[in-house]
Amino acid sequence: MIELFLVFLIFGSLGILLILMNKILGPRKTNPKKEKPFECGSPYLQDKVNTLPIKYYLVAVLFLLFDIEVVFFFPWAMIFREMQPKAFIIMFFYIVILLVGFVYAWKKGAFEWER
Amino acid sequence: MIQPIYFIILSLIIFVLGIIAFFIKRDLITMFMAVEVMLNAANLAFIALTKAIGIIDGQIIVLFVITVAAAEAAVGLAIILLIFRQKKTIRTEDIQVMKG
Amino acid sequence: MNSIMAAVPLLTVVVGSLFLLILEVFLNRENKSYLGYISLTFLVICGIICTSFWNKDYSYFNGSLHLDNLSIFFYIISLLTIGFVILISLKYLFLQEANHGEFFALILFALSGMMIMVSSTDLLIIFLGLELLSISSYILAGFRLKDVRSSESAIKYFLLGSFASAFLVFGMAFLFGISHSTSLLAIVQHLQSGTSFKLIGFMGLGLVLAGFGFKIALAPFHMWAPDVYEGAPTPVTTFFSIGPKAAGFAVFLRFFHIYWHSLESSQAIFWLLWVIAVLTMIIGNLAALRQTNIKRILAYSSIAHGGYLMVAVLAQDYTSLMFYLVVYLFMNIGAFSAVIALSKKNKEFLELDDYSGIGFQYPWIGALFSVFLFSLAGFPPTGGFLAKFYVFSAAVRQGLVPLVIISVLTCLVSVFYYLRIIVYMYMKEPFHTVDVYKENPALFLVMFLCVYEVFQLGINPGSILVLIRQALISLPVF
Fold it and tell me: Options 3.40.50.300, 3.40.630.30, 1.20.58.1610, 3.90.1140.10; which CATH number does A55-107 get?
């Protein structure tokens, strides 16, 4: 155990030291040209990396939410046999709530790609 | 096997790193990510404690915390997006209108 | 008794909010006030169901949620708050470019969060209720989508709020570690008995208290409140100043009722809370002195009132705590609805200068606002006086004389800034003409109800005190 820790300590600190050495020791002379992503002399065509279209955001968030809500099916499945009739009712209500959210998102047009 | 106490110490370290990042970063998304790091540190602590104690409740709590964090992420990103549409920036010093 | 029937009041509210959400997307009408009336109907149904459970003492979901008298009392407080907020926001949403039907669904979600919080004795369930309340609040704070201030207040509330809930969860992990459970009773028992992990336990308790202190804006964690209160739409500000506070103090009540009985361990936390209460009162009242925006003044005043409520917690007198909450509910909603009354299409009058001469231009609004301000300051014929009187006398009975002296002094300071608004309204020449949108019957209904209750509670508090005593019976006895 302690050896593992020591190995991590030594190699980790060595790595950090090597990375930092550059910054600590190296001379620092910057000018606006140097800060630019390309130093080829020609002016670049675009400002920066393209931002993603905002559509991705909605889909990603909806995916995240519905994905994580399904996690609760696992503990439910574990105890399903023990609480046979009750488990069905509880999960029914849970799915109804999810469904309401889904219908709401649908009617609001969250899934329409072209708008 | 690694003792659970190491995981608890690790979670403490991650939590403190999250706090530090929350205070030194000046970018809404990064600040929000710092909060998520803190929540996940708490999750790690829960898992480690569950392992140490030997009862399974802690793992269920982690599921709840993850769900809450996801809901928070959805709302938070929506608010950040709203601000970006209004001001075209998400730097904290640029969005400050009210004092304090 | 453990019965699923006891979940009916909570389910009514949840079903109501889901119903409103669906109705809003399918009908999608221009005028949204029909959604407000439907949500009010659900609130009334829920209230009637609640009262039918009085004195029955049910619990459900294996005892993690209780429907005892205390829960029902706080349910009614929450229902009243939300009902009033819906009434004062009916016209406001239309006037201030916030005409989205989701408002009513969200505010009912927040209500269900509050109801979960006040009826639970399990830290995990309390956390879930708190998050339901907070996440709805984050959206509500940014509800005026075109207003820069509104979205700034939303992001501030969101970032600091989720920061605080991270503390809460981490503290919960520690408490879970020492007590192997999340029930408040088990946690307190292990804090008493466990000697080896005492430090970890108190660290966890401190983190949890910090998280809650943030949500109810106690002093070292109050810095978000003025900005959020200023930027949020005014009915939402009204809700923020009462809803989370009432729910948070309900949790404090349940927790500290158990906690103060664990004799040897309570000293450190007692002095911590003592300092927090003093800081809250001093900072809240002193910072309010130099504000010129009316919503910021009311924000700092609500922070200060949090301090007085903390005094009641320290005095271990829950009757006065709950009485103070009831009075605070009516007088604060009244004050904020007076602020809402002074608005027109796309413009609210929020600077102190706008209020000069209001008392003669709009005698009704001026007079009612003055009554609420007198009550907030604690003048005798109103409920605000009796509430403060009960809290302070309970604290004196507990021997907390220095604390009471500090609170009375800060009360005197508070009189200054409340009276300053009244001086502006009645003793200054109008700064500029203030024309107000007047056709708002729901708002005036709320103001008259509140003024009636403020006097009723100030002159004849007997009936409500009886109800509070009946509610407190359901606390566990030691």
Answer: 1.20.58.1610
